[in-house]
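Notes to self after the Tuesday call (sharing in case useful).
The group wants a holo model before anyone commits to mutagenesis around the pocket. I volunteered. Ligand is iron/sulfur cluster. Logging inputs and output together so the record is complete.
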Amino acid sequence: MSKLKISEIFFSLQGEGPLIGYPTLFIRLFGCNLNCSWCDTPYAKGNNPHKEVEISEILSFWEKNFNSLPFITITGGEPLIQNPVYNLMNAFLEKNCIVVLETNGSISLNRVPKEVIKVMDVKTPSSNMDRHNLYENFKFLGKKDAVKFVIKDEKDFEFSLDIIDKFFLTYYTQVFLSPAHPFLDPKNLAEWILKTKKPLRFQIQLHKVVGIK
Ligand code: SF4
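Result:
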């Protein structure tokens, strides 16, 4: 097998997306190809500390400590910039795990195994990274997968509605809208969503509400 650059491995509740609330082993891969203005994991990129770990070591760690738990989330940074991540996903699928991939949406999902639950960002204008959105990726998403928009202001919200309508997202995948913490009052986003009367899902990061990692 091969080595991956890892920022951290930790155990917590899944705070967002289709599997919200489940106890989950998180594998945060190091490095990112984007530079969002409101990045909430700056420690997972740049010159920050990280370790190189063999995939076999990650599997052994899970087997020793968490083998009663099927939920694995691979996050970042941006996991897809490291080629061995495909081996990691396949290795956990072979152990009958339920694998979630959180990705920033700028890299093709064409090599991601279809069994993996994909949670893909669409970067909004306030991130300054919206030019990197790879809309072709929508064709790899289905009902078990999700698209996530982080909303900082009304301009982001209008942008998100346009994308959702243009690509008919709510018809074939799940759509989540999250307030950019701490910039947007969650209540404002809740009210904007209700006004649309569309099947959009408001989400607030559960782990932050509960006060855990
Ligand atoms: S894609 Fe994620 S990790 Fe990368 S800069 Fe944006 S928020 Fe940070």
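Two things stood out.
The two ends are 30 Å apart (CA to CA).
The helical segments are 55-65, 85-94, 154-166, 169-172, 186-196, 206-210.
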